[in-house]
Fold:
Amino acid sequence: MKISGPLVSARSLSKQFDDFVAVDGIDFEVRPGEVFGFLGPNGAGKSSTMRMIGCVSAATSGELRVLGLDPATEGPSIRARLGTGWPSCSSSSSSPTGPTAGSIPCPVA
Structure:
C-alpha cells in the first residue's frame, strides 16, 4: 500500500482524562522520509499523543489519520502496519532486573 499523503496527520487533536487535558488541540504532519519526535516536560502529552497514533488510546476530539487510515475504525490494521508491540510488554529475560513496575508481561510462545 503506497501512501501519497502524510504518514501521520493530526488536526486539533485532543486527549482529555476527566478534567485533565493531556493533549490540547495539536496540529502536525509527518511525511514519508521525515523523522519526528516530541519534546516537552513531564505531563506535556507526548505519551498520550503516541498512544493515539499507535491506536492504543482514542482521541477525545480532533482528527487523526495514520497511514491514511482512521484509528477510530481501523486500529488493528494500523497496528499491524506499524509493526509495534505497543503497549510494550516486558519479561524477566529482557531485563537484568526483571519486569519494570507497570509493565505488561509478554505472552509465552
Observations:
- DSSP finds two helices and five strands in the chain.
- The mean pLDDT is 82.
